[in-house]
Amino acid sequence: MSATREQIAETFERHVNSEGYSGTTLDAVARELRISKKTIYTHFDGKRDIYSHIVARQAQQEKRTLARSLAAIPTRAGRLEAFVLSVLEMGRAHIVKTGEDEWLSEYEIAADAFRKAQGDLLRELVQGGMDVEEFRTGDATLVEKMVVAMVVEYLVLVNSDPSYNRDEELVERICRFVI
After folding, report:
1. What number does CATH give the domain 5-43?
2. Which label site among 95, 100, 126, 151 has the fewest CB atoms less than 10 Å from its CB?
């Protein structure tokens, strides 16, 4: 049986959902699909590459959903606030789902996918606010990178203490920084 890239990714994702990232092995995925590990390596560079593919796909879906919901908010400032709160909600949900240790092992991959997917949306939002002079003018890419860094580092704090909740303060500080 020849497995496609998506079959491998779907099987890997199922294993991650049941056993966690650390507990998922390429041997188990290959065994379930009745293929060799070599076949997996023809489609992916390894475990991290498969997980990155899965997270990127999920991040793109979340981006589309979030973009639709933000479009209904009349002001760019309101959109920015809703964006940050939504991302924090997604981050908290992922932390609860995976647990502290598992989240840390996935952190780098997930943060990179977030930067790519949500960073584009954030940059477009910031640039749009600058274009209509609702936000201070400047380099939208720099602002996007700084806001993403704030959110990602905040989620590191939340991961180490899930009861830590200064979401409103973070949103307020980000809005003051951008606006």
Report:
1. 1.10.10
2. 100
Half-sphere exposure of 8 (CA within 13 A, CB side): 28
Task: Please count the other Cβ atoms lying within 10 Å of the Cβ belonging to residue 63.
Answer: 18
pLDDT digits (tens, 9 = 90+) for 69-96: 999 999 999 999 999 999 999 888 878 8
Q: How many CB atoms lie within 10 A of CB 96?
A: 11
**Long-range Cβ pairs for the range 79-84 (8 Å, 24+):** 79/125, 80/125, 80/126, 80/129, 80/174, 80/175, 80/178, 80/179, 81/171, 81/175, 83/118, 83/121, 83/122, 83/125, 84/147, 84/151, 84/170, 84/171, 84/174
Q: What is the pTM of this model?
A: 0.80
DSSP symbol at 137: -
Digit-coded pLDDT (tens) for 23-69: 999 999 999 999 999 999 999 999 989 988 888 888 788 888 999 99
